């Protein structure tokens, strides 16, 4: 285990509202989807895990674990990580149509060119 993605657990509908609010405030939005219904909002109450970037060839994986009936996101290494190496995981964004594509700049040999 490397770090837990901490934040406030909110319902998807609330997450959508908050995302629009944060964007209107020019804030960086940091959220992690747990499942269809819930999202961890790390924008205000998050820890350093929110700054981990996406990579198509990541050195970490994420998993949802249940601890005392509460869902938590745990980020773990999936291979040996060199000292000073940047941490990354696959954001696994849903696929979007061409108008809403986010380009990927991870630099991996197998880069998919798009994050979604
Ligand atoms: Zn990539």
From TrEMBL:
One of its GO terms (molecular function) is zinc ion binding. One of its GO terms (biological process) is methylation. GO terms for cellular component: MLL3/4 complex. Residues 1-92 form the SET domain. It holds the Pfam family SET. Residues 100-116 form the Post-SET domain. This is Myeloid/lymphoid or mixed-lineage leukemia 3.
């Amino acid at each position: 285990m490397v770090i837990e993605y901490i934040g406030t657990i909110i319902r998807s509908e609330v997450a959508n509202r908050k995302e629009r609010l944060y964007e209107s405030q020019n804030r960086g939005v940091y959220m992690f989807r747990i499942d269809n219904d819930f999202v961890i909002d790390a924008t205000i109450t998050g820890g350093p895990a929110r700054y981990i970037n996406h990579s198509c060839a990541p050195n970490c994986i994420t998993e949802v674990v249940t601890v005392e009936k509460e869902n938590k996101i745990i980020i773990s290494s999936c291979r040996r990580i060199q000292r000073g190496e940047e941490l990354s995981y696959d954001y696994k964004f849903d696929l979007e149509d061409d108008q809403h594509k986010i380009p990927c700049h991870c630099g991996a040999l197998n880069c998919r060119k798009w994050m979604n």
